[in-house]
Amino acid sequence: MKNAETGHYVGIEGDAGNDTKIVAVSSPFKWDVRDSDVESVEGIRILAHGTNFSLDLEDGNAANHTKIKLRRSCLSLNQIWAFTERICIENQHAYSLRNCLDDRAVNISGDDNYSIDCSRPLNNYSQAWIFQQDDDKDGWFIKASCSGKYLAIEGDVANRTRVVAVSSPFKWDIRDSREKSVEGIRILVHGTNFGLDLENSHSTKQAKIQLWESVFGLHQVWAFTERSKIISITTAVREALIMGDLLTAEELLTKDINTDSNNYTSYSQRSFIMYRQHKWDHALQDANKSISIQPSLTGYISKGFALCGRDYVQGARAAFDVASMYTDQDSQTTHFLLLIKAMALYSVNRHNEADLLLEELTIGCPNPNTRVCHIMEAYLRVQLEVKALKDKHHSKAAEQITTAVNCSALSSTSDIHDLYGDLIVLLGWDLKSFWLPAHQELCDALLLAGRPQDAVKSYRYVMDTSDITKDSCPDWSNAFTKECSALLLTDGYAALSAKDYHRAIELYSAVINLDCTSDVAFTNRSEAKLGKELWEDALRDAQKVIELNPSSYVGYQLSYKALRGAQRHDKAIDAFTAMLSKLDDAIDAFTTMSSKLDDASKAQIRELRQQYVHPSQADLEIERAVGTELENAPLRLLNTSTGLLCDRAAQRNAFKTSPEYNELISYRTKDSNLRTKHIKDVVATYFRCVLLSHRWEETEALLHDIQGKVMYELNGLGGIAKLRSFCKVARDAGYGWAWMDTCCIDKTNNSELQESVNSMFVWYRHSALTIVYLCDVSPSSQPGALATSVWNERGWTFQELVASKVVIFYQKDWSLYLGDRSTNHKESPTIMKELEDATSIDPQALLTFRPGMSEARKKLQWASKRVTTKQEDVAYSLFGIFGITLPVIYGERKQRALGRLLQEIVAQSGDISVLDWIGQPSEFNSCLPADITSYATPPRIPPSLSEDYIHAQVSSLRQTMPTDLALNIYNQLKELRAPRFANCRLHLPCISFRVTQVRRKHGLAQDSRIMYDIKADGLHELSITTEENLVQFLRAKPPRQTLLLVRPWDRHLLADYAEQPDFTDDTESIGYETGPESPIDGSQVDDSDKLSGGSPVEEEPGLQALRLMVRLQQPFDVFLLAQQPVGEYKRIASDYNIIAQVKDIASVGQMNIGTVEIL
Fold it and tell me: What is the pLDDT of residue 738?
């Protein structure tokens, strides 16, 4: 139980028992709530959780401030509590506000959208107010639903200050009424005691509202009634719909339905999405399901649209008629519903009926109050205008669109009413941004109606409007002005410019019938036929142009376009070469003065010739694109069409004999960027490759089994059958190339093996598809079989899973897992949930995975449960995960392979999180684990410190710690070098604490593990458990071997005070010796190897350092080091994380800072 105002919880002081005091506490306290066991009253009994002690009124009377205590439960009214729900305003909900004195409602003036008064309650959106909570949740903004203006005050906070509506948000406080006789709220200016007050409430119909200091009285108490939205959708669904991502919106709603099967709202919303995807039956099912759970306005609207989609108009009309029963007799909602009905009728080609309904609405409701109704009317009229244009009713079209654009609410800045916006988004109607297209349609309609003067006038109106310029719609503006000018010269040219190819062909055919020698007419008719993709007809006209004007390049240019469109690529190249020759002839004629062309035409031809590329140059561009594409592809690929294994040379030869290559050679465009892009796109599509991810079985197809053979003709079971099935699946999916690791790598070639291992991640990352074959998942398996498949346990499949962007899972018989036919199983919530269960990797991390050093410790944890057949592959399979390239040396053993990988991670990133492990140390270096399973335990994440806490601690430190001392420590840590390896030795920047006492705990040994109590200078005593035998000693008798507790220095602790530190890796660590009195040495500093820090965030001297001191006092991870005879150290492994903490601030000042060399 939490107090709504202070946030404190009801708790007890001490243990539960008789007379225990009831108090307010900051932490949650749990209670049990039981029905009253006293028959005479209705109420509840509140007991301390798990006990028989109840809240009890101390003396049983009704006096003010009577104490409450705990007492053992008994049949007494002292322990029975009645409850009343308190008023609650919900964020982003709309309410009407009525004064509790005379029931008049807060109203915004429709005349100036500024004045506020109180008038008779109306079902009017001028009395609807949206309550928006401030980001800090300490106040509210109150916005008029009809205008978007905010409730505010005019002037200073004082008695009689006028209340008005303004454009900027104004903050209010909402308080429960202190009046016992009514339920309501008080609305006060934020941080003050002045609230809304009804002025002179009995004098006029429209009383004014003013500010007045809070007093007891109903004239300052306001009842509220929520104004319901037609429909409300979540932010995530809204964002997906606005982006046009219907699949994501569908998945989100499906998830809501799976969470709550009675969520009728989600069913109706999903019905709209199904309707938009033309899935009429699914849309109708969802609509009926919504209605069966809870009949509603949106349920019947969605049903109406679903039935329209199925062309069952009579049923749709009935659904819309039933929907009107759920409008709460609100005239504006009814008007809106009828507009939706009209638009639905229009969508099923009932244009006349939609037009008639719109006309009746205009007559019956000439002045609807909401802007959305105006905009929807205009939108529908534009659609009817388009229909009229198609029917060649140009005059009617112009009339429709004129009515639409003259709508008072139709402006380029129109918004959609909050109560309707979500429904508009669900239906996918773009009502906000069609002002300009509407005026464009008007211009076109007037032009086609034979009213060019009115068309120009409308065009000038669009251009002269303040928020629309010619630059904002250049394509349409240029096309329109050109078309309007051309209409006065030739109808044929206008039709061609407007892309009305059928009319253009008719007009130019008439010209040819009059004058068959007009090469211009044949030229333009050929262009029109090209636009309609009538390739052979366009070619005949192009040949006629060549016949009439053989010296011109134009006929050959048209022939090339027609031949290319007909995919006659060889002939297209010939025509293109002839066109280039004619251009060259024309340019040569310029120099001999034999050309009759003017200078402008000559310049145009020269420029045109320069823009075209010869086929030989195109071949070079194609070759470059192929080279680029194959850079990220495997060295050998299986041709899924021929069944042959192809090396790079064979892959290139196959492409050069393909139709795709011929198409590229003949493809020409004046835009070099467009040509290059097209070449890249075609090449990328041709070389799309499918990679297989699988668990190796006993028999696999190897390179020597298939090399030089047609794979489809091979007989055999096991690996050969798997290979054939894989290639067939890839081929049937439309992919020409496939790759399988068992047979596409020459493992006897060390160079190829090295390149393959280091490139594997890149290959899977750039694959068009990765097929995962689950050999242990049978077709009869139930959901969840993927999670238990051995495929999830293999080392190489981890890399293949995270690297691949598109993945599809197949079962043992090569059927789709779960029958899921989606194009990417990584987008399947069900399958991704199984992968998460199996791998402990968040689905979002699987989708967004990027190789590299970031989150190295987490990636090692993900890989910690993976196993490989060859022990070195535990490390080699992670090279791509971290973006590392290293030599592949099979036979070096697991510890060395893993050690080289971890060493490279530290060397490249300076990330010390890889030193956080539990297990046995590696022979490679004692600070690294012997096995990757040592990373299975998640790292300890220290709690974050609030700014308030840090500020308080800094204030305290100023009294106890000299600033110079703090700055000295800060600067020492700032100057530490990056961690690095040299000759398998780790040079680790750290803070160390000398161990002064080691004592064994007797009787606590488990197996070979021994527990020790350890004391160190400046640290609280701590314990460790290890398999190693430590020499026990006391401070008075130090041993010969020095022991240190070491805190590896984390560079990010400085990131709170300076710019992100940077590590350089191009220098070697400097060696040194350590004596018994000085185990570490930070004096030898190489400037090229420092942590670089930027300028301090704060300018106050010493503040950064003091903040760092606060963090250094918090608990931290350490590990134990034992000094070796020649001065280096080795890590002593522990079975648990060792957590240490300095004793006091004085201990911080005595820390040893420097670099330790660890074997």
Answer: 96
The amino acid that residue 605 corresponds to is I
Average pLDDT, the chain: 81
Q: Given pLDDT bands bounded at 50, 70 and 90, which one contains residue 455?
A: low
pLDDT of the residue at 592: 64
Cα 240 to Cα 269: distance, rounded to the nearest angstrom: 13
Helix (H, G, I), strand (E, B) or coil at 276: helix
pLDDT of 671 above 70? yes
In this structure, what token pair is assigned to residue 465?
Answer: 């409007």
CB 269 within 8 A of CB 233: yes
Look at residue 847 in the predicted model and tell me its pLDDT: 92
Q: Provide mean pLDDT across the span 335-345.
A: 77
C-alpha to C-alpha distances, 414 to 154, 408, 409, 433, nearest whole angstrom: 27, 10, 7, 8
SS (H, E, C) 1113-1144: CCCEEEEEEEECCCCCEEEECCCCCEEECECC
CA–CA separation, 681 vs 1099, rounded Å? 54
Other beta carbons within 10 angstroms of residue 412's beta carbon come to 15
**Is the model's pLDDT at 942 over the cut of 60?**
yes
| pLDDT band at residue 471 using 50, 70 and 90 as cut-offs | low
Give residue-wise pLDDT tens across range 392-429: 444 554 555 555 445 444 444 344 444 445 556 666 66
> Sign of the CA dihedral 787, 788, 791, 793?
positive
CB contact burial 611-622 (16+ within 10 A = b; e otherwise) = ebbeeeebeebb
SS3 518: coil
Spatial contact of 344 and 316, defined as CB atoms under 8 Å apart: yes
**9 touches 2 (CB < 8 A):** yes
Q: What angle do CA 477, 483, 488 make, to 5 degrees?
A: 140
Closest CA to 764 of 693, 694, 844: 693
Q: Which residue has the tokens 């068009």?
A: 768
Give 954's contacts (C-beta < 8 A, 6+ positions apart). Answer: 1103, 1106, 1107, 1110
637-639 β-sheet, strand order: 645-646, 637-639, 737-739, 689-694, 769-773, 807-810
Burial 701-740 (b: 16+ CB within 10 A, else e): bebebbeeeebeeeeeeebbebbbebbebbbeeebbbbbb
Q: What is the average pLDDT across 360-370?
A: 55
Closest by CA position to 264, among listed 212, 299, 303, 313 = 299
Alpha carbon distances (Å) from 121 to 98, 99, 101, 115, 225:
8, 10, 13, 17, 11
Q: Which two tokens stand for residue 539?
A: 């070619």
Per the CB < 8 A criterion, the answer to whether 327 and 229 are in contact is: no
**Which long-range contacts does 362-367 make (Cβ < 8 Å, 24+ apart)?**
365/331, 365/335
How far apart, in whole angstroms, are the C-alpha atoms of residue 109 and residue 93? 21
| Residue bearing the bigger pLDDT, 339 or 15 | 15
Percentage above 70 pLDDT, the chain: 78
Q: What is the pLDDT of residue 477?
A: 67
CA distances from residue 755 to 889, 929, 953 in whole angstroms, order as listed: 12, 27, 55
CB under 8 Å to 1060, separation ≥6 — which residues?
Answer: none
**854-913 residue pLDDT tens:** 999 999 999 999 999 999 999 999 999 999 999 999 999 999 999 999 999 999 988 899
Q: Model's pTM, two decimal places?
A: 0.53
Phi, psi of 734 (to 5 degrees): 95, 15
Single out the residue of 776, 684, 774, 769 nearest to residue 730, CA to CA: 769
- DSSP secondary structure string, 652-692? HHHHHTSHHHHHHHH---S-HHHHHHHHHHHHHHHT-EEEE
Here the tokens at position 830 are 């069900």
